[in-house]
Amino acid sequence: MSVREMAAYAKKFSPSVKRETTIDQLLNKANAPEAGKAVGWEGDFTAMALKTVIREATLENTAISPWRCKGQWKTKAKVETAATDAREVMIQTTANTSIDLDAPAE
Hints:
By secondary structure, this protein is an all-alpha fold. It contains four helices and no strands. It has helices spanning 3-13, 23-30, 45-60, 72-94. Helix 1 packs across helix 2. The radius of gyration is 24 Å and the shape is elongated.
């Protein structure tokens, strides 16, 4: 990932980057010799970029996010149950519906 791509990523996904901050301004912060006094991308672009690269590389190689493990299985079971229930309702409500495949499209 290039520095420009990282700046675009920060601009798109980080709530700490101000709306009026441009990608070129972030690139200037990336090339600054020292970190600024602000927090996050606006203050220490290099540290935030390093953290993002490590996090993205870690998430690519893990099945689930390490910080979301707690309660993950309960949530998965609830989602699967809800999906099964929704599927059953759909089957029941459309069981007597017929489709005329020869009818012209509307």
